[in-house]
Design goal:
Elements (H helix, E strand, L loop, with lengths): L1 E6 L2 E9 L3 E8 L2 E2 L4 E4 H11 L3 H14 L5
Antiparallel strand pairs: 1-2, 2-3, 3-4, 3-5
Length: about 70
């Protein structure tokens, strides 16, 4: 599953992965990984759903996008 967004005239793509053990999101620019992978275990996801009513992947995507927009990865 992927989601695209534009920042500073560049198109980024956030790709998400779930292997049943870990949930991961990565940003790509020009089809190359940009910045680190953000991840959480399936157990953390279950706890997060119980506490906040949403999947942790939404938090990971939002944080990754925000970090890019804030210029954390130049």
């Amino acid at each position: 599953m992927s989601e695209k967004f534009t920042h500073d005239g560049q198109e980024f793509e956030i790709r998400s992965f779930n292997d049943g053990v870990n949930i991961r999101v990565k940003a790509f620019l020009n089809n190359q990984q940009f910045g680190p992978e953000y991840s959480a275990s399936s157990e953390v996801n279950s706890d997060h759903i119980k506490l906040h009513g949403e999947h942790i992947i939404n938090v990971l995507k939002t944080q990754l996008k925000s970090d890019i927009q804030e210029g954390l990865y130049l």
